[in-house]
Amino acid sequence: MKGEEGMINEFRHLDEGYTVIYCPDAETQQMKEVYIETEDFSKIDIAIKGAWKSWKRDKKKFIGGVDGRKAINLARLIMGIDNKLKHVLNLTDNPYDLRKCNLIVINCGDNQKSDVRSKIEELKRKVPPILKIQKEKPQASMQQQLVLHNDEGGKYLNRAEAAENLGIAKSTINYWNKRNNLSVKRDEMGKVIYDDELMGKLKEIKDTAKLIRKEKVKKEDSAKQQNPQKQDIRILKDYKTNDYLLVEIESAGTLSVIKKFNKKQIEQLRESFSNILL
């Protein structure tokens, strides 16, 4: 089933007094099963008009949604906490088990106190496991959530998927979006949605950049052909060994030793050159 006026997530009420809500991972779009107590469902359903999603912050997963510009943490909503000095702790560290029996409210920082830690461990042992019930998921709607298709059948990608698809870095996508002032669509959490239209524009930019690089290489190659490297041959003295070196000097300033001569050989060369008529 799907909420009609509130959240758009698929959900299923179970016989055990629990409800499972299917929440897409904000980064991978993989569907996650989030368990709540059915008595909490009504306030969760009307809290947002978009989708509850699995997010990651400070290396920890959590379930959240957006109501207008306000971000809502699902665990805090269930426990009725709006005080920033209070913290909702997940006893089993399972971000997808949001039954109240698995949540506890403590003051920020109290989880470092020994007596609080003892209480947490005691309550943790009492949390009943979630029964793994084989259930048939509503495939059509689940697929819609999984790959985020729009009405025209185009696929929405996140930035990582878009970068992989284009064969470029994620930072390059950000740069192109800003440099070219591209018009973008955003999801409930304000992240850019890479639909077919935006992906088409990015591909055009990539092809143009590739063409510009090719033209630049051609010009550089042409310039090298028109201005070949000049070379010069000189005799230099090596003051460490008192030998003389016949070297080839390229236009880039690099030296290449052709032959080494001692002082006697240089005198012989000098006499030989003096007999040459130019």
Automatic annotation (TrEMBL):
User: What is this protein called in UniProt?
Assistant: Chromosome-anchoring protein RacA
Q: Where is the HTH merR-type domain?
A: 160-206
Q: Which domain of life is it from?
A: Bacteria
What Gene Ontology molecular-function terms does this entry list? Answer: DNA binding
InterPro entries in the cross-refs = MerR-type_HTH_dom
Originating organism = Bacillus thuringiensis subsp. israelensis
Q: What Gene3D superfamilies does the entry give? A: 1.10.1660.10
Pfam families assigned to the protein according to its UniProt record, in alphabetical order: MerR_1
GO biological process terms held by the UniProt record: regulation of DNA-templated transcription
